[in-house]
């Protein structure tokens, strides 16, 4: 359902990203040897799909920073601090290639199980909209809190979160094409 928030061309971009078939330089080079494999933005490493997300080029870093700022403003309105922190760390720290995942020691049992479940799936999978089903449990727990002010159901929250991730993928891809 998160894909429904995108127009058709951007939906195709996200689907190609999920399937690992975005036409990044390393893929295009397979059928057109005139295309350089280096990233056009940073010009330092082979441009893979993973690199497109994590390229240190200043414009891509700015997209990441804007996305993180958006999440830091949006998440507290719909989920507790613990879940907000885990989602942000998951996307911007644990999902990076070669990142070490250390389970925070002060987690609730449901949050602990959620982290372990997502770690088994892969933190990088958050960028593809693949979230462990334990996120629903953690959000359901939060919705039961008397201090909850969100009008989202668990399912709506997850869809809105994934929509934000997908919009960021589209922005990263557009920036890549603009270079």
Walk me through what this model shows.
The protein has 179 residues and is mainly alpha-helical. Helices cover 56% and strands 0% of the residues. It has helices at residues 8-19, 25-28, 49-54, 58-74, 81-94, 109-121, 134-143, 154-178. α6 (109-121) packs antiparallel against α7. It is elongated, with a radius of gyration of 17 Å. The model has no long low-confidence stretch (mean pLDDT 92).
Give the DSSP E fraction (strand runs of 2 or more residues): under 5%
> What does the overall shape look like?
elongated
What level of helicity do the residues show? 55-70%
Question: What string gives the helices and strands in order?
Answer: HHHHHHHH
* Count of strand segments: 0
Largest sheet: none
Structural class: mainly alpha
Query: What is the alpha-carbon Rg in Å?
Result: 17 Å
Q: What separation lies between the terminal Cα atoms?
A: 31 Å
Question: For this entry, what is the oligomeric state of its chains?
Answer: single chain
Q: What value does the average pLDDT take?
A: 92
Which parts are unreliable, with pLDDT below 50 for 5 consecutive residues or more? Answer: none
Number of helices: 8
